[in-house]
Q: What sequence folds into this?
């Protein structure tokens, strides 16, 4: 806290921020409403509109939304509670297959989409508790390897239990969502987009409330120093299990949505690469900061799914002779790796670190400035 | 030079029990397979555990260092030495093997040091997850460099050690199997001696135990860490040579799964404990082979992780790990 | 807030970068759209912009490059040759290459996104792909709804086209289908290998190993069923994922049961080449016949990078393979033309992709007579290709497709490795060819 604060009236922007801080949930909902309505308009403006038709843009945003949801969920486990989970894709798989079992010709069930969201979240949360239970006594990196193991075990179970899951062939023809008789289709991505924005907004409100609640503070206490947290009366067991459960339930939501859009699920979609991608989104976005993580997810998704694939086209447009003869598609993982390393070297705290993290990493300079010069303290 | 029997007895006991159980359950032929696989896992696990012990980093790129080692060995054998098949003259064979082994280990050592210097050292004081992400980034880079240079398909390695087998107790064991296991054990003993008896080894142990105190005592931390990475990568390189010689075929994405199992082995044995890593390697290989013998090949990975989880539930620090309290 | 501005700037930049995805100049480097001379026929009004495209939807990066890149090359060759003849009805041809590999592995979601991109590109008249049946299951609903033709050179899973599962992918337009495939389905390739091993080679017991992938499990299952039906004995069946580096324990356990033959149900990129090499070293299996489907019988001689014989080396003797297409290639100049253009031998599916491109070109030629714009040309291509009355002359022979999109006259060719060929390194030689009749043919 700086000692000298100049007394001046807060600016309109400052007043707005203060008010937003007080009415957080409304701000979030309003924020998402604004983002959701602005994005489709931006891509209608040239030159963006000439590169891809609007429907493809919106389809891409809906797909990115799945990863934003995943990143927000993993943020609870890794960012808030400090539990290094390297097998997060397992919960994504659970949600996906739950929807496939609930709404496909394979099981002849047709449970509607919206209840299935809840079912998927609950099933995933249950598994989160089950998988979290053996890890309670483990220290940080042991926890990591065990969660990594679960991340491999769950898809392997779906692959090998082919009598129940059709194994490697996957389950196809999954039914698409329906709202009051209005059927979602694959040709029109707008209903999916709107649904995803709604899910994201509600989830974010929920997560912010959690973060500010006693449970959220208990998570942060465990993250910083588990022994001290336990000593101050926090039940570390239930707190950790709740972290796993809530993180998993978000992944379950994402899984249900993603499967309803792809209409197909197979065990090969949930490997370590997916877990790692979501972890990278959390770290690069700024662990602990929910909006930061969401933005980081959007950025990395765009890089991975769009930018890297279109490198050849991009460089063809630039018309640089040397670059045109290189087939960038072959080198996309090299570039991705280089980008990851570079981002970590340049900004290890992530793009939008939480204010606490920023204080941690830049504390030294501020602390020195804040200490009053000795002459004052000695009481002249 | 006295040997502290109490400290030695536990690992020896665990190791012997493990080996005997393996032999009883597998039979000679599969036992030989498991030992050979275990030698490779053990060599890689040692590197994981050494690096983790000293900088507390799960070096996900380590498996890919093993893979690069195998390609380096292949390149040395084919391009530099012009070999293409078994070498029958024993003296020649020994000489060539020594050259290949030495060159690969030294080469990989320098590559390991290079990666530490430029990718991990700047992040030594960064949040714990940052070097983890970087490690995976390095993994992508290594894989892609190799696949660009040598193609995405499996590449043949000249198997210069003849694959002749001799009969032993009901099964057939190859001279190469014996050589591999002996080499792995020799390297492990050499490592133990180095870490336990030399000044550099003492520096490594003290840095692993308490970095600040070591620094105060005059240990050059940067150099010590660099040497640790050198040795870890050299061992992985040795594993790569063995992989190529025995299987005769290597691929650019070889590193990830082998590395994962080796890392499981290191954790199983107690991460930070080199003897544990070696034992863990053989145990993991045994679990894999045994799963195959029982007919559950596609579940072998699941089996490996299940074993790990069970062990960790009952001994949260691994088989030979110290029972530390919660580190602040 | 500095970070806020930085973030906004970054996000904006990324939006711009990602925008550069649908540029009209979509030729990947290395593709040559031939400098064809002046077209003899003026392009009709349907050829808006003077160029139409054939799309490819294949895994092009990471571990699956060996699958997708040579296949795409087959399409590129067809386009180049057609442009040299003046294009299609005076309209130039171009290619739109899409990659469905994410992190090196084929990914159904990426495939679905690519299919949407191809649908949105009005100049795309037809798509060659995908490679993997799982990806196809995610893509067919999209192309079916949009009416864009897909021709797969490699999908073999029965459920992709055949009812009841196949119907769930065609729900939007069940009678106006838009998916055809040139590859023989698993229901034909697996049993034909079983027949060959039992009847022609006279072996009555077999060990089957598959690679846990859709194709491998599919042919493995159908092989197993047929072999048992003939009266043979399947001593053991194993599944080894492609991450397996050591197959020796598996073969050791199997050798103890004395199989007279081994069926490698999978492909070489997913480990069957290595399995062959290591399996031969196990005592008891040194001389038994190893049989594989067309993912193993890639017809590449020893010495070609990535070929089965190259990987297995000296272990390639007594190896047999089935290939899901006719041997008597209608056009024998394909292999030479491919090697001249790209260097190296064609991939296992290059000819099939070339055939798909030929089908699209022929359908487009026919449609151009009555088309008025790009949309009607696209619909014309689809209608012509799936019409079972239309027969197409391709490098794979004469092809036409039934009401589900399957090849009406699937062929299986049998090959054997002869180690004396290719300068002692070994090569595949043709043994015989069989044709089957499609039960669903109209």
A:
């Amino acid at each position: 806290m700086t000692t000298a604060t100049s007394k001046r009236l807060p600016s309109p922007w400052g007043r707005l921020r203060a008010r937003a801080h007080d009415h957080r949930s409304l701000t979030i909902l309003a924020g998402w409403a604004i983002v959701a309505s602005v994005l489709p308009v931006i891509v209608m403006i040239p030159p963006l509109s000439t590169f891809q038709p609007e429907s493809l843009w919106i389809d891409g945003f809906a797909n990115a939304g799945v990863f934003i949801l995943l990143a927000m969920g993993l943020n609870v486990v890794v960012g808030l509670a400090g539990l290094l989970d390297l097998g997060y894709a397992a919960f994504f798989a659970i949600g996906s297959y739950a929807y496939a079992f609930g709404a496909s010709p394979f099981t002849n069930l047709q449970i509607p989409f919206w209840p299935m969201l809840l079912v998927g979240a609950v099933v995933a949360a249950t598994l989160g508790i089950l998988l979290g239970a053996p890890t309670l006594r483990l220290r940080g990196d042991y926890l990591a390897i065990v969660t990594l193991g679960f991340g491999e075990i769950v898809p392997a179970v779906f692959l090998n239990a082919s009598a129940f899951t059709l194994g490697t062939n996957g389950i196809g023809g999954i039914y698409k969502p329906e709202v009051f008789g209005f059927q979602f289709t694959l040709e029109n991505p707008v209903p999916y987009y709107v649904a995803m924005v709604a899910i994201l907004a509600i989830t974010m409100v929920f997560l912010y409330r959690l973060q500010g609640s006693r449970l959220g503070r208990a998570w942060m206490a465990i993250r910083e120093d588990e022994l001290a947290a336990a000593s101050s009366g926090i039940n570390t067991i239930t707190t950790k299990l709740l972290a796993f459960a809530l993180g998993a339930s978000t992944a379950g939501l994402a899984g249900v949505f993603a499967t309803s859009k792809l209409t197909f699920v197979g065990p090969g979609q949930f490997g370590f690469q997916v877990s790692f991608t979501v972890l990278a989104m959390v770290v690069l976005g700024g662990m602990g900061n929910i909006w930061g993580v969401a933005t980081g997810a959007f950025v990395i998704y765009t890089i991975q799914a769009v930018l890297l694939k279109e490198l050849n086209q991009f460089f063809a447009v630039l018309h640089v002779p040397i670059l045109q003869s290189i087939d960038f598609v072959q080198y996309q993982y090299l570039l991705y790796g280089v980008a990851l390393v570079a981002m970590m070297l340049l900004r290890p705290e992530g793009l939008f670190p939480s204010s606490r993290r920023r204080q941690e990493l830049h504390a030294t300079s501020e602390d020195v400035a804040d200490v009053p010069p000795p002459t004052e303290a000695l009481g002249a | 030079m006295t040997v502290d029997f109490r400290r030695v007895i536990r690992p020896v006991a665990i190791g012997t029990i493990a080996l005997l159980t393996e032999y009883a359950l597998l039979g000679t032929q599969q036992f030989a397979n498991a030992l050979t696989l275990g030698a490779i896992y053990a060599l890689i696990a040692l590197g994981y555990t050494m690096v983790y012990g000293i900088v507390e980093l799960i070096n996900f790129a380590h498996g890919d260092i093993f893979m690069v080692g195998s390609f380096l060995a292949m390149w040395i054998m084919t391009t530099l030495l012009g070999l293409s098949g078994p070498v029958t003259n024993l003296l020649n064979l020994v000489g060539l093997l020594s050259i290949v082994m030495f060159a690969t280990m030294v080469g990989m050592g320098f590559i390991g040091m290079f990666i530490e210097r430029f990718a991990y050292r700047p992040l030594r004081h960064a949040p714990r997850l940052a070097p983890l992400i970087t490690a995976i980034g390095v993994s992508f880079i290594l894989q892609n460099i190799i696949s660009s240079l040598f193609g995405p398909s499996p590449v043949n390695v000249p198997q210069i050690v003849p694959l002749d087998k001799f009969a032993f107790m009901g099964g057939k064991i190859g001279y190469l199997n014996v050589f591999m296991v002996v080499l792995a054990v020799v390297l492990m003993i050499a490592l133990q001696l180095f870490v336990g008896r030399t000044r550099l080894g003492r520096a490594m142990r003290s840095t692993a135990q308490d970095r600040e105190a070591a620094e105060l005592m005059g240990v050059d931390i940067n150099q010590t860490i660099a040497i640790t990475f050198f040795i870890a990568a050299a061992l992985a390189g040795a594993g790569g040579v063995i992989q190529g010689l025995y299987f005769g075929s290597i691929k650019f994405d070889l590193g990830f799964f082998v590395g994962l199992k080796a890392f499981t082995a290191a954790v199983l044995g107690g991460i930070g404990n080199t003897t544990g890593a070696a034992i863990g390697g053989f145990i993991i290989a045994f679990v894999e082979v045994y799963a195959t013998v029982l007919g559950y090949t596609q579940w072998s990975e699941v089996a490996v992780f299940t074993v790990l989880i069970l062990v960790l539930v009952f001994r949260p620090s691994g088989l030979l790990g110290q029972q530390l309290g919660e580190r602040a | 807030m500095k970070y806020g501005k930085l973030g906004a700037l970054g996000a904006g930049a990324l939006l711009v970068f990602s925008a550069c995805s649908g540029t009209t100049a979509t030729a990947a480097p290395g593709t040559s759209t031939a400098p064809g001379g002046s077209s003899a026929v003026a392009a009709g009004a349907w050829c808006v912009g003077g160029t139409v495209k054939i799309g490819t939807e294949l895994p092009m990066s990471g571990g699956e490059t060996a699958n997708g890149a040579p296949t795409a090359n087959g399409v590129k060759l067809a386009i180049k040759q057609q442009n040299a003849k003046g294009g299609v009805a005076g309209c130039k041809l171009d290619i739109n290459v899409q990659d469905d590999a994410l992190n090196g592995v084929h990914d159904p979601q990426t495939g679905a996104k690519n299919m949407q991109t191809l649908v949105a590109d009005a100049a795309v008249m037809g798509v060659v792909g995908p490679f993997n049946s799982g990806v196809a299951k995610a893509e067919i609903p999209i192309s079916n709804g949009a009416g864009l033709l897909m021709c797969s050179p490699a999908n073999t899973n029965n459920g992709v086209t055949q009812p009841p599962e196949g119907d769930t992918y065609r729900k939007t337009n069940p009678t106006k289908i838009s998916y055809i495939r040139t590859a023989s389905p698993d229901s034909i390739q697996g049993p034909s290998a079983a027949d060959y091993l039992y009847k022609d080679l006279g072996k009555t017991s077999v060990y089957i190993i598959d690679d846990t992938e859709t194709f491998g499990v599919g042919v493995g299952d159908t092989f197993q069923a047929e072999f048992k039906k003939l009266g043979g004995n399947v001593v053991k069946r194993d599944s080894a994922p492609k991450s397996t580096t050591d197959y020796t324990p598996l073969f050791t356990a199997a050798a103890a049961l004395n199989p007279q033959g081994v069926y490698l149900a999978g492909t070489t990129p997913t480990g069957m080449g290595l399995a062959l090499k290591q399996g031969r070293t196990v005592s008891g299996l040194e001389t038994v016949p190893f049989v594989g489907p067309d993912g193993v019988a890639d017809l590449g001689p020893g010495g070609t990078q990535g070929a089965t014989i190259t990987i297995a080396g000296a272990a390639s003797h007594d190896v047999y393979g089935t290939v899901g297409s006719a041997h008597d290639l209608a056009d024998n100049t394909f292999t030479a033309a491919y090697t001249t253009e790209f260097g190296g031998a064609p991939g296992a599916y290059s000819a099939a992709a070339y055939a798909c491109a030929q089908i699209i070109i022929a359908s487009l030629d026919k449609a151009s007579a009555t088309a008025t714009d790009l949309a009607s040309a696209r619909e014309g291509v689809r209608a012509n290709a799936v019409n079972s009355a239309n027969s197409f002359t391709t490098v794979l022979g004469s092809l036409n497709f039934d009401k589900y999109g399957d090849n009406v006259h699937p062929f299986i060719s049998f090959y054997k490795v002869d180690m004396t060929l290719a300068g002692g390194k070994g090569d595949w030689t043709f043994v015989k060819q069989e044709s089957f009749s499609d039960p669903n043919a109209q």
